[in-house]
Design goal:
The complex is a heterodimer of chains A (about 90) and B (about 170). Chain A contains five helices and no strands. With about 90 residues, chain A is mainly α. The longest helix of chain A is centred in the middle third of the chain and has 15 residues. In chain B, strand 6 and strand 7 form a beta hairpin. The longest helix of chain B has 14 residues. Chain B is α+β, with helices and mostly antiparallel strands and about 170 residues long. In chain B, about 35% of the residues are buried. Classes of the chains: A mainly alpha (about 90), B alpha+beta (about 170). The interface between A and B is large, with 40 and 37 residues.
């Protein structure tokens, strides 16, 4: 019996990653909130998942600066999630 | 052609990437601060601030280098601009939620902009510092010009060279 063919992913890119995001953060995003987030990131980056490394390099001017910024968290989100601050 | 011994005249305009809108490029007329749609290699970023109160054209806030070989990073607001090596900048959060961006010259503050904190939108567990900076042009500019996490001189040199070389909007 042939192995079942994998089903193509459904939903938007962010919706497909939601199970992981919610598992990691405990946050629950409504479909409307997901749509709003995706529209926002599409407008800013042309990509519903957010900026690429090259897009951030264009703004930061060095890979080291991008990496440094990428390891910092948002104080407001840390507070919401009860997570440790990473300044 | 520049006269012998004279520095070349600055270009009248520079192509910049819109800080808030993917794929939108502007030509900034350096002398007037007027913006027109453009294409080509970008030499920095511009935040386009609407000015409905005065009914005038949008006001640019920009950080850029003038073009290939340039060694100066410029901060421009409207028709005014500052050589970033000759001024200090500071961006601060105020207790009421507003932000304050200040440019200090040799004789004190030369520009003070008070603006509401950007709205981060719906609660997003993936919202991090990259997003925080991406939502606030003035925070980005202040960080780039005074980044304590790196050697500021090296960071400024790298950013100036990067903007002078130019980049294609990705």
């Amino acid at each position: 019996m042939p192995a079942p063919r994998p089903r193509p992913p459904t939903g938007t890119p962010l919706q497909r990653r939601l199970p992981l995001l919610t598992a990691l953060s405990g946050a629950v995003l409504s479909p409307e909130a997901v749509e709003e987030l995706e529209a926002r990131t599409m407008k800013e980056y042309g990509n519903p998942l957010g900026p690429t490394a090259d897009q951030r390099f264009a703004a930061y001017g060095s890979r080291a600066a991008v990496i440094s910024a990428a390891t910092r968290s948002s104080a407001a989100v840390d507070q919401e999630l009860g997570a440790e601050r990473r300044p | 052609m520049a006269a012998l011994g004279m520095p070349p005249a600055p270009p009248p305009a520079v192509v910049l990437q819109d800080y808030d809108r993917h794929g939108r490029l502007w030509s900034l007329d350096i002398a007037t601060g007027l913006l027109t749609p453009a294409s080509g290699r970008c030499h920095g970023f511009v935040r386009v601030l609407a000015e409905p109160a005065r009914g005038g054209p949008p006001v640019p806030a920009a950080l850029y280098a003038e073009g290939s070989g340039a060694r100066t990073l410029w901060l421009q607001y409207g028709p005014e601009r500052w050589d970033c090596s000759a001024v200090a900048v500071r961006q601060a959060s105020e207790p009421d939620g507003h932000r304050l961006f200040t440019v200090f010259g040799a004789r004190g503050p030369e520009l003070e902009l008070r603006y509401p904190a950007p709205d981060p939108g719906p609660s997003d567990p993936t919202y991090d510092w990259i997003d925080t900076v991406a939502d606030d042009f003035f925070l980005w500019a202040a960080e780039r010009l005074t980044d304590g996490a790196e050697d500021t001189t090296d960071a400024l040199r790298a950013l100036t060279e990067h903007f002078a070389t130019g980049f294609l909007s990705a």
